Amino acid sequence: MSSLKDIARFKSALFSPLLPEHxxxxxxxxxxxxxxxLCSELARRGIATSYPNSEDWGWFIEFLPxxxxxxxxxxxxxxxxxxxxxLSLRRHARKMFGRDKPPFAEAATLVEGIRELLVGSPxxxxxxxxxxxxDAA
Length: 137
Description:
By secondary structure, the protein is an alpha+beta fold.
């Protein structure tokens, strides 16, 4: 079973990088503005996540639903673009060697909150909802 599932792909100028290229995690790797917006807007709706963190591939926020499960929402741009974005959901294993991954269903509140945000935001265009609730890869 896969650990990563795409949630949505969309276009928006709202999350274009504010800082110059040399301040980014890697050249043409963006997503900080999207991750900060996402965690702030989810918090306003009562869905708590972490503050954004970065990796060499982009940005993510963590979600801990209280069941012991751990998830992360990856917030990254598509192919160096400054106006096209991809959100993906990663589930983290509870045991060593990647075993005992929680079902994606444990992040249903988070995923539904993200859907509501994207659908209800006027600056989001060409929204393609990719997430399927089943746990199949």
